[in-house]
Amino acid sequence: MEAIQLLQHYAVGKRDFSASNLRETWVPKAELSGIILRRADLSCASFQWANLALADLSHANLWRANLKHANLHQANLCQAVLIRSCLESADLTQACLAQADLRLANLVKAQLKGANLQGANLCYADLTGTDLRKTDLTGADLTGACLQRAMIQPTQLEQATLARVSLETAFIVEADAELAATP
């Protein structure tokens, strides 16, 4: 399927594009909230600045996809393949990334507050400046991940794999301190 076909079908109300082949599709700034791309091949696709809020991308192949500045608020990315994807400055607030493969992903300055990353593979991912407060990292593998200047609560790391992870410049935020600072 070509990008123009995707946008035309979406414009007339179609939302389910499950298992579609959208490799190398280029749709920056597209308005695609609520789209269903379950099990779709989106490898090397570009969704920069796109609105994918509430989208279902579960089990999708997003290998090397460009999702820089994308709105993925409350999106379902469970078990998605996001190896080497660019999610820099993406809004993944309250998104589900359970068991997603985010090895070597660029998540610099991404908003992951309240996201579900249970069992996710974040090996060697760049999480520099990422907001991880209230994020569920139970069973997540953060081996070699970069957490420089990331905001994180210490209890979130209790059941995560942290081999070769440096937390020296991470902002460790206590849950009570965060509540006190919230207006």
Offer a concise description of the structure.
It contains two helices and two strands. It is low in regular secondary structure and 183 residues long. This is Pentapeptide repeat-containing protein.
Keywords:
Pectate Lyase C-like; disordered C terminus; 183 residues; two-stranded parallel ribbon
Structural features, described:
InterPro entries: 5peptide_repeat. This is Pentapeptide repeat-containing protein. Keywords: Repeat. This protein is 9% helix and 2% strand. The chain is low in regular secondary structure and 183 residues long. The chain has a single domain, classed as E3 ubiquitin-protein ligase SopA (Pectate Lyase C-like, 3 Solenoid), CATH 2.160.20.80. The radius of gyration is 16 Å and the shape is elongated. The model is unreliable at 176-183 (pLDDT under 50).
Report how far apart the termini are. 47 Å
Extract low-pLDDT stretches. 176-183
Query: Element order, helices and strands?
Result: HEEH
**Overall average pLDDT:** 91
Q: What profile does the largest beta sheet have?
A: 2 strands, parallel
CATH-scheme architecture: 3 Solenoid
CATH class (first level) name: Mainly Beta
Query: Beta-sheet strand percentage?
Result: under 5%
Number of domains: 1
Class inferred from helices and paired strands: little secondary structure
Number of helices: 2
Largest sheet strand order: 1-2
Alpha-carbon Rg, integer:
16 Å
CATH superfamily descriptor: E3 ubiquitin-protein ligase SopA
CATH topology-level name: Pectate Lyase C-like
Quaternary structure type: single chain
Helix share, percent: under 10%
Overall morphology: elongated
Number of extended strands = 2
Protein name: Pentapeptide repeat-containing protein
Keywords: Repeat
Pfam families: Pentapeptide (PF00805)
Organism: Almyronema epifaneia S1
